[in-house]
Prior knowledge:
It contains 10 helices and 9 strands. By secondary structure, the chain is an alpha/beta fold.
Amino acid sequence: MSDKHPLSGMTVIFTGTPKAKEAVASVQLQGGTPIILPLIKTVEKVVPTDSLRMQTCASYEWLIFTSANAVRYFGRKMEQVGLAPLDIPVKIAAVGSETAKALEDIGLKADFIPSTFSAEHFVDEFPAFSDEADRCLFLKGDLAKDTIKEGLPNEVDEWTVYETVDDLEGILGVKDLLKQGGKTAVLFASPSAVRVFSEQIAAETGWTGFTIGAIGHVTEEALLEAGAEVHVKPERYTLLDLVRELGNRKEGMS
């Protein structure tokens, strides 16, 4: 009989603040203890031209989002200038199911989602769903790579709607926890979280003695570059799937 609580006795640390409560609840349902370690937080980037930029969105054929954060901050800007979803009659492309869900939350809908949730697959598949003459606006964070702009044959304008900053709340307690040993997993959802963890925690504790999970290949690459071994990576790039994969791994090891 399989163990219904594969994470029993394990502390699961989320680097970043999960937007979806299901992932944290899944840890608890599997017998684990979740800890939220912010490490990073996002803040809206506001510039005087935001209002004018919002008004020009309808002049594009496509809006492109690769993160739920970009969608949320775009939604805030819609509210600030009084734009309704119907005021943005353009097609929308989204990388990932969480990004698509965030679009639904602000009244918009994704017309295209790549089969694999990565910017690399996006630039491979998007041309088949669009015309090369279509003008695109990429809504992004300040740390987004150039994959979309450089990889598409379309004209791509970029709009940075949020920035990422360090958030070190709770970091001392996690350092002590990792030094003490015990059953611990650390889940990473972004390269930014990997960077802060590497600088502020792993510099003292190292990368061994705990299970490491990465939400996707970009985060996995950042961990490998930092000298960490990635033990868990889900096929679908969501925190809930990462937690489920962690539970499956622990169940298989028991």
